[in-house]
Design a protein that fits this description.
The chain is α/β, with parallel strands linked by helices. It contains 12 helices and 7 strands. It has helices at about 30-35, 45-60, 75-90, 125-140, 140-145, 150-160, 170-185, 195-215, 220-225, 225-240, 255-265, 325-335; strands at about 1-15, 65-70, 250-255, 280-290, 295-305, 315, 325. Strands 1, 2, 3, 4, 5, 6 and 7 form a 7-stranded mixed β-sheet that branches. It comes from Ibidorhyncha struthersii.
């Protein structure tokens, strides 16, 4: 007879829909920033995160007593954490302090972006990583794939007002976000920003994301990027086996690059840009096999990826293991991407 017991749940999610962090020079909607601010969670973004919190409550309803929440120090990530917690922890009975406001404050921790060596990926202050990135951009494979986008980049420069040389990876991501925001929130899009153009921009963003964390010397990159986050997660998971360990849930509010870097380190990335409120779950279980007196305790990890609120999360299988992966095997399989002196 096998019995299972929950021990720890870890979630790393992307923030919800937000106002643009910058507008391209020819954008007709720059006044929105003056009204709503740059990079602020929208009503839709609040709803997306609140719904994610409600889903977590349904999934982990009996294990919500002790939680730790950390966010990057960006407004939309902090607001996303708070909106998720509102859905996860609606006050009940004696927790209700105002019957008209069914909300209670839950602490969210953060550090300045300049000191964030965990969630605000990619870490660009690392000379070794920057060298790997330069090597990646020079590879024949990357140049071959980028070549097909050269006319498209000139097209974007012409219509957005950005100089061609300034259309770097970060600006491409932000441009894609801006057009997505304007489309979702029913602003009039520029004539040139057709569905086909926006789709191609997403494909280009995905190519550049792959280049940031993979493509060339993926293991070495992961040691300096997603492996840093994975090492922290694994440390907490290993500590959770201790009977005195109280924390049952850890929640990280972050960005699409955070999820991609983590999933590249785990070799489970599907190549697609994580949508708003996408969430990667780690679940630690204690398996009890046999009779009580001779029970053999074993810990297993399961991973899931929720990238569609209308469907159940996708099970993720670490290469070389199965969905219900023994903790010792999981640790051994990911060890190549864990840096030991950071």
């Amino acid at each position: 007879v096998t019995q299972r017991e929950f021990h720890l749940f870890y979630q790393v999610f992307r923030h919800g829909d937000h106002t643009p962090q910058e507008y391209f020079p020819t954008d007709m909607h720059k006044e929105v920033a003056r009204q709503q601010g740059y990079g602020q969670l929208t009503k839709l973004g609040i709803q997306q995160q609140y719904e994610l919190g409600q889903y977590m409550r349904r999934r982990y309803s009996y294990f919500l007593s002790v939680i730790y929440v950390q966010s990057t120090d960006s407004d939309h990530a902090l607001m996303s954490a708070q909106a998720s917690l509102a859905g996860l922890y609606p006050p009940t009975q004696d927790q209700i302090w105002n019957p008209r406001i069914l909300w209670q404050p839950i602490p969210v921790h953060t550090v300045p972006l300049s000191h964030d060596n965990l969630l605000h990926l990619p870490f660009l202050h690392c000379p070794k990583y920057n060298q790997l990135l330069r090597e990646t951009f020079a590879t024949r494979d990357f140049q071959r794939q980028l070549k097909q986008y050269k006319p498209f980049l000139k097209f974007l420069a012409t219509h957005t007002g950005y100089p061609l040389k300034r259309l770097n990876t970060e600006r491409i991501w932000k441009l894609s976000d801006t057009l997505q925001y304007e489309d979702i929130n029913n602003y009039t899009l520029p004539v040139w920003a057709t569905h086909g153009v926006r789709t191609k921009l997403i494909k280009l963003s995905e190519l550049l994301l792959q280049a940031e964390f993979g493509f060339h010397k993926q293991i070495q990159k992961s040691r300096l990027q997603g492996g840093i986050l994975l090492k922290t997660i694994l440390k907490h998971i290993l500590n959770a086996r201790n009977p005195s360990h109280q924390r049952k849930m850890v929640m990280y509010s972050a960005h699409e690059a955070t999820i991609v870097a983590l999933q590249m380190a785990l070799s489970v990335f599907n190549g697609k840009l994580p949508p708003y409120s996408a969430c990667h779950f780690f679940e630690l279980y204690q398996e009890k096999n046999g009779q009580v007196l001779q029970a053999v305790l074993q810990y297993t990890i399961e991973m899931y990826y929720r990238n569609n609120s209308l469907r159940d999360p996708h099970p993720l299988t670490l290469p070389g293991c199965k969905l219900r992966c023994p903790l010792e095997r999981f640790t051994r399989l990911v060890s190549p991407v864990l840096v030991h002196h950071w």
